[in-house]
Amino acid sequence: MISSLLEGKKKLAVIGLGYVGLPVALELARKMKVIGYDVKSDRIALMKKGIDPNKEISSEAFKGCDITFTTDPDDLAAASFYIVAVPTPIDDHKQPDLGPLINACETVGEHLSEGDYVVFESTVYPGCTEEDCVPVLEEKSGLAYKKQFKVGFSPERINPGDQIHTLTTIKKVTSGCDELSAEVIASLYELIITAGIHRASSIKVAEAAKIIENTQRDINIAFMNELSMIFKKMDINTFEVLEAAGTKWNFLRFYPGLVGGHCIGVDPYYLTYKSGKFGHHARIINSGRDINDGMGSFVANQGLKKLVEMRKDIQSCRILVMGMTFKENVSDIRNSKVVDVIREFRSYGIDVDVIDPHASPEEVREEYLLELKSKPQPPYDAIVVAVNHDEYVQLKEEYFLSLCSNEALLMDIKGIYRNGLKKLIYWSL
């Protein structure tokens, strides 16, 4: 299989060209013929011009790649090796939403031929690949799993906004449904991953490894958020405490904050869902999720208390929220917990403006029914720096004062200005 791909006798297809799929497709397209498939025609149109819709990859990265971008599922029939990298979100009830993944399986299954390979990179609960995806592939293709087509799982480890830990420099976990497929899949990724490959013993082990990576981080951040709540009552600055504790060699460096995005704020629910199927209530994981999901409301209510202490008329207050994306220096707004802060303020009748140099106004409007302002429209009674974009980190107190009324509050969620303000009333986690 690998030699046929490298010689151009066979093609590889990547299904889903978001933060995960596009980097994989471009790297492999420097080695072989690749079909890049996505259901969103506007994104495909940009990629055909060498533009990453997520603004993570430069136009230079598209050069020298043998890749065909398409929204036509019939084009997938030319492929023999499929990599599925579609989103795996949760629904309104915080249950796994396998809709995009099952749709991708149906599309691939309709074009699957004997001897083909399908590798999943989408984050799922242990067992999902073989229990949920494989039956769809079998039904749509009419082929027998393991005998006529092979399946593997290689979890994504893309970190949006990180230009150091990139696809090729992060060790890759791979797995297959049998010994042969495990070796073939590992060999494929070895072509592009300079950091090396870890061969998991089974698909379930690889699935579990991915889900606990993000769950572990979620729990640790929840601990930091709970500490912040405790220290607020004691009038202690959490960041100063963490700075002091961090001088010990084995202290783990995590910080409080809003936990959103399509990974850390979502993946733990896949694990708690599956554990529930086995009759186990995941107490620590659920507690961490409860804390992190409530941080937006906590931040807003802390702001309201401060405004009341300042003797402000709450319903006549105007607040500026700086940052809408789920983390710094990215354009991704999926599952952004900043929305919770905004909605909590607005539930009290407060006028809230929102700005963000990275977020798309159209996407924000479509996803959250919120309008991004192109620039601040002062004066404001409070400013919430919700995301520490590079554009915000270097701002001085004079800038914030220029946007504020006589007495104003600066809420610095990430604690980036804690040693540089003298005139504004200051709050941080």
- Which percent range describes the beta-strand content? 5-15%
Question: Which radius of gyration do the C-alpha atoms yield?
Answer: 24 Å
> Looking across the biggest beta sheet, what order are the strands in?
3-2-1-4-5-6
Class based on secondary structure composition and strand pairing:
alpha/beta
Strand tally: 13
Please, how many domains?
3
Number of helices: 15
**What is the CATH topology classification name of the largest domain?**
Rossmann fold
Principal-axes geometry comes out as elongated
Helix content: 25-40%
First-to-last CA distance: 53 Å
CATH architecture of the largest domain: 3-Layer(aba) Sandwich
Described by strand count, sense and barrel closure, the largest sheet is:
6 strands, parallel
In CATH's first tier, which class of the largest domain applies?
Alpha Beta
User: Please, what is the CATH homologous superfamily of the largest domain?
Assistant: NAD(P)-binding Rossmann-like Domain
- Which parts are unreliable, with pLDDT below 50 for 5 consecutive residues or more? none
